[in-house]
Predict the 3D structure of the following.
Amino acid sequence: MLISPAPAPHALGHQMMIEYYGCDADILNDPVRMEQIFLNAARTSGAHVISSHFHRFQPQGVSGIVVIAESHFAVHAWPEYGYAAVDIFTCGKTIDFQTAEETMRREMASKRHVVIGEFDRGLIPPETVE
Amino acid sequence: MLISPAPAPHALGHQMMIEYYGCDADILNDPVRMEQIFLNAARTSGAHVISSHFHRFQPQGVSGIVVIAESHFAVHAWPEYGYAAVDIFTCGKTIDFQTAEETMRREMASKRHVVIGEFDRGLIPPETVE
């Protein structure tokens, strides 16, 4: 007898967390350049940008958010360690994560990156999906 | 013979991902109320708010970011499912995650929440910590 599996729950969102090590410190410490990089990564991945907010800390460090119609890109960069923490959070199926990841990696000149987590967010029983 | 363990690497950041189900749909769909809730959660947790950016989608849904000196709070809410995806990303040791979590849960009237992930971000060898 074959038993039909229960239908998989529907995920409303998807999130990827990436560690970028060995980046160019001057790039990580430049909020204008970082904003260009993340806007470019968002747009080339197919996201629709709503707004972006980048902030430089003293004596160093940059935090930035790109709000997209499909959720957000976030980055927190420690130039003194050549390290940037990145999150991509999306809803829908239209964002090209790989293009986004490669764009950020190339433009921050990261020598080593690790995808430390990938999550489905908002698991909704399939019968409730509108 | 006792072998000394290697010193633990130092984490630059810490991230917590929380799923809030069974929330009040009217609250989740109100960007002004949601901004107040997340500003309140950030402040009562000890964070220093730099800016906040909340956006309402059509026909429904709210996305919001609170940029804090210690990194960010992010929320993406689907009122039609009573669901909100929350991320808290911090650096330093000063943020009270529990107070933040309880504030958001209470103010969104969530009936069920799940911490689906907690991560140290930016693992730096201890000898390089400045």
